[in-house]
Design goal:
Blueprint (H helix, E strand, L loop, with lengths): L1 H21 L2 E4 L7 E4 L8 E6 L4 H13 L10 E6 H8 L5 H13 L5 E12 L2 E11 L1 H10 L16 E6 L14 H4 E3 L1 E4 L1
Parallel strand pairs: 1-9
Antiparallel strand pairs: 2-3, 3-4, 5-6, 5-8, 6-7
Helix pairs in contact: 4-5
Length: 202
Protein backbone atom coordinates (compact mmCIF):
# COMPACT_ATOMS: atom_id res chain seq x y z
CA UNK A 1 0.00 0.00 0.00
CA UNK A 2 2.81 2.37 0.87
CA UNK A 3 4.51 1.74 -2.48
CA UNK A 4 1.22 2.27 -4.28
CA UNK A 5 0.67 5.56 -2.47
CA UNK A 6 4.16 6.79 -3.36
CA UNK A 7 3.69 5.81 -7.00
CA UNK A 8 0.33 7.56 -7.09
CA UNK A 9 1.82 10.73 -5.65
CA UNK A 10 4.60 10.59 -8.25
CA UNK A 11 2.06 10.32 -11.06
CA UNK A 12 0.09 13.26 -9.69
CA UNK A 13 3.27 15.35 -9.41
CA UNK A 14 4.30 14.65 -13.00
CA UNK A 15 0.78 15.36 -14.24
CA UNK A 16 0.66 18.61 -12.27
CA UNK A 17 4.01 19.76 -13.72
CA UNK A 18 2.87 18.87 -17.24
CA UNK A 19 -0.40 20.76 -16.81
CA UNK A 20 1.44 23.81 -15.46
CA UNK A 21 3.78 23.83 -18.47
CA UNK A 22 0.83 23.61 -20.88
CA UNK A 23 -0.85 26.84 -19.73
CA UNK A 24 -0.24 29.81 -22.07
CA UNK A 25 2.79 32.00 -21.44
CA UNK A 26 2.56 35.75 -22.03
CA UNK A 27 4.92 38.36 -23.44
CA UNK A 28 4.54 42.10 -23.93
CA UNK A 29 4.33 43.22 -27.55
CA UNK A 30 7.12 45.76 -26.99
CA UNK A 31 9.57 42.97 -26.04
CA UNK A 32 9.29 41.43 -29.51
CA UNK A 33 10.92 44.47 -31.13
CA UNK A 34 14.56 45.50 -31.07
CA UNK A 35 16.44 42.37 -32.21
CA UNK A 36 20.06 42.87 -33.33
CA UNK A 37 22.73 40.68 -34.92
CA UNK A 38 25.97 40.19 -33.00
CA UNK A 39 29.19 38.32 -33.77
CA UNK A 40 30.08 35.91 -30.96
CA UNK A 41 33.39 34.27 -30.05
CA UNK A 42 32.35 31.12 -28.23
CA UNK A 43 35.04 28.53 -27.60
CA UNK A 44 32.77 25.51 -28.12
CA UNK A 45 32.06 24.23 -31.65
CA UNK A 46 28.35 24.25 -30.76
CA UNK A 47 28.40 27.81 -29.43
CA UNK A 48 26.80 30.56 -31.53
CA UNK A 49 29.05 32.35 -34.02
CA UNK A 50 26.23 34.72 -35.01
CA UNK A 51 23.46 35.57 -32.58
CA UNK A 52 20.16 37.33 -33.08
CA UNK A 53 20.26 39.11 -29.73
CA UNK A 54 16.94 39.30 -27.93
CA UNK A 55 15.29 42.58 -26.94
CA UNK A 56 15.56 43.64 -23.28
CA UNK A 57 13.20 41.90 -20.81
CA UNK A 58 11.92 39.18 -23.18
CA UNK A 59 14.02 36.27 -21.87
CA UNK A 60 13.93 37.49 -18.27
CA UNK A 61 10.14 37.71 -18.24
CA UNK A 62 9.71 34.24 -19.74
CA UNK A 63 12.35 32.73 -17.43
CA UNK A 64 10.38 34.02 -14.44
CA UNK A 65 7.20 32.39 -15.74
CA UNK A 66 8.96 29.07 -16.41
CA UNK A 67 10.72 29.09 -13.05
CA UNK A 68 7.48 29.83 -11.18
CA UNK A 69 5.72 26.86 -12.78
CA UNK A 70 8.56 24.34 -12.87
CA UNK A 71 8.97 24.20 -9.08
CA UNK A 72 12.62 23.19 -9.45
CA UNK A 73 16.07 24.72 -9.84
CA UNK A 74 16.73 26.20 -13.28
CA UNK A 75 19.39 28.44 -14.78
CA UNK A 76 19.48 30.79 -17.76
CA UNK A 77 21.98 30.49 -20.65
CA UNK A 78 25.13 32.55 -21.04
CA UNK A 79 23.86 33.99 -24.32
CA UNK A 80 20.55 35.80 -24.77
CA UNK A 81 19.38 35.36 -28.31
CA UNK A 82 18.59 33.05 -31.21
CA UNK A 83 21.66 31.29 -32.66
CA UNK A 84 21.88 32.06 -36.38
CA UNK A 85 25.12 30.22 -37.11
CA UNK A 86 27.25 27.93 -34.94
CA UNK A 87 31.02 28.06 -34.57
CA UNK A 88 31.39 24.61 -36.13
CA UNK A 89 29.35 25.69 -39.15
CA UNK A 90 31.40 28.87 -39.54
CA UNK A 91 34.70 26.99 -39.45
CA UNK A 92 33.61 24.09 -41.65
CA UNK A 93 31.73 25.92 -44.40
CA UNK A 94 32.80 29.57 -44.38
CA UNK A 95 36.40 29.84 -43.16
CA UNK A 96 38.56 31.21 -45.97
CA UNK A 97 35.53 32.00 -48.12
CA UNK A 98 33.90 34.88 -46.28
CA UNK A 99 33.97 36.51 -42.84
CA UNK A 100 31.53 36.92 -39.93
CA UNK A 101 30.95 40.58 -40.77
CA UNK A 102 29.59 39.70 -44.22
CA UNK A 103 27.39 36.98 -42.71
CA UNK A 104 26.09 39.37 -40.05
CA UNK A 105 25.20 41.91 -42.74
CA UNK A 106 23.37 39.18 -44.64
CA UNK A 107 21.34 38.39 -41.52
CA UNK A 108 20.28 42.01 -41.15
CA UNK A 109 19.40 42.36 -44.83
CA UNK A 110 17.32 39.16 -44.71
CA UNK A 111 14.82 40.98 -42.51
CA UNK A 112 15.68 39.56 -39.10
CA UNK A 113 16.11 42.97 -37.49
CA UNK A 114 14.69 44.87 -35.75
CA UNK A 115 11.50 42.82 -35.66
CA UNK A 116 8.95 42.18 -34.39
CA UNK A 117 9.31 38.40 -34.44
CA UNK A 118 6.31 36.14 -33.96
CA UNK A 119 6.60 33.53 -31.18
CA UNK A 120 5.05 30.21 -32.09
CA UNK A 121 5.15 28.26 -28.81
CA UNK A 122 7.12 27.34 -25.74
CA UNK A 123 9.20 24.25 -26.44
CA UNK A 124 10.35 21.70 -23.89
CA UNK A 125 12.81 18.83 -24.05
CA UNK A 126 13.64 16.26 -21.40
CA UNK A 127 16.42 13.68 -21.64
CA UNK A 128 16.96 10.96 -19.04
CA UNK A 129 20.32 9.22 -18.71
CA UNK A 130 21.89 6.99 -16.05
CA UNK A 131 23.60 10.09 -14.64
CA UNK A 132 20.40 12.09 -14.30
CA UNK A 133 17.67 14.02 -16.12
CA UNK A 134 18.24 17.12 -18.23
CA UNK A 135 15.59 19.63 -19.22
CA UNK A 136 15.45 22.54 -21.64
CA UNK A 137 12.87 25.28 -22.20
CA UNK A 138 12.93 27.42 -25.33
CA UNK A 139 10.70 29.63 -27.45
CA UNK A 140 10.22 28.56 -31.04
CA UNK A 141 9.56 31.48 -33.40
CA UNK A 142 7.74 31.60 -36.72
CA UNK A 143 10.34 33.55 -38.72
CA UNK A 144 10.50 32.95 -42.50
CA UNK A 145 13.47 35.35 -42.65
CA UNK A 146 15.50 32.91 -40.53
CA UNK A 147 15.25 30.14 -43.12
CA UNK A 148 15.80 32.67 -45.90
CA UNK A 149 19.02 33.87 -44.28
CA UNK A 150 20.37 30.34 -43.81
CA UNK A 151 19.58 29.45 -47.42
CA UNK A 152 21.16 32.64 -48.77
CA UNK A 153 24.48 32.26 -46.95
CA UNK A 154 24.84 28.70 -48.24
CA UNK A 155 25.90 30.30 -51.53
CA UNK A 156 28.72 32.16 -49.75
CA UNK A 157 30.37 29.06 -48.37
CA UNK A 158 30.87 25.37 -49.02
CA UNK A 159 27.32 24.20 -49.56
CA UNK A 160 28.33 20.58 -49.11
CA UNK A 161 29.37 21.32 -45.51
CA UNK A 162 26.41 23.46 -44.53
CA UNK A 163 22.81 22.38 -43.94
CA UNK A 164 20.47 25.40 -43.80
CA UNK A 165 17.65 23.41 -42.21
CA UNK A 166 19.83 22.07 -39.38
CA UNK A 167 18.94 24.97 -37.08
CA UNK A 168 15.56 26.36 -36.03
CA UNK A 169 14.78 29.88 -34.75
CA UNK A 170 14.78 28.98 -31.05
CA UNK A 171 15.45 31.24 -28.07
CA UNK A 172 16.69 29.20 -25.10
CA UNK A 173 15.03 30.37 -21.90
CA UNK A 174 16.01 27.96 -19.12
CA UNK A 175 17.52 24.61 -18.38
CA UNK A 176 18.40 22.21 -15.60
CA UNK A 177 22.16 22.73 -16.04
CA UNK A 178 24.65 25.14 -17.59
CA UNK A 179 25.58 23.01 -20.62
CA UNK A 180 23.33 24.89 -23.00
CA UNK A 181 25.51 24.56 -26.07
CA UNK A 182 25.25 20.77 -25.80
CA UNK A 183 21.61 21.11 -26.90
CA UNK A 184 22.64 22.90 -30.09
CA UNK A 185 21.85 22.73 -32.90
CA UNK A 186 18.14 22.75 -32.06
CA UNK A 187 16.12 21.36 -34.96
CA UNK A 188 12.65 21.82 -33.52
CA UNK A 189 9.53 19.86 -34.42
CA UNK A 190 6.40 21.77 -33.28
CA UNK A 191 4.42 18.53 -33.10
CA UNK A 192 6.70 17.07 -30.44
CA UNK A 193 8.51 20.04 -28.90
CA UNK A 194 5.70 22.57 -28.35
CA UNK A 195 4.03 22.28 -24.95
CA UNK A 196 2.29 25.65 -24.56
CA UNK A 197 1.12 28.62 -26.63
CA UNK A 198 2.49 32.13 -26.14
CA UNK A 199 0.06 35.01 -25.89
CA UNK A 200 1.06 38.57 -26.81
CA UNK A 201 -0.05 41.27 -24.40
CA UNK A 202 -0.84 44.74 -25.85
Amino acid sequence: MALGLIAGMGVLFVRSARDARAKPYAVDRRTLNGWSVTIESGSSPKAPALLLRAPPDLSRDLFHQVFTRAMESLSSPGFDGIPLLLQAELEAAFAGRTNPEVLAAAAASAGLTPGPLQPRCLGYRRVSTPSGTRQLYFVLFDVPAFARFREQIATLGDGAKFAPAALSPALIIAGSDASYTSWLPIRADPATDCVAPIEIRP
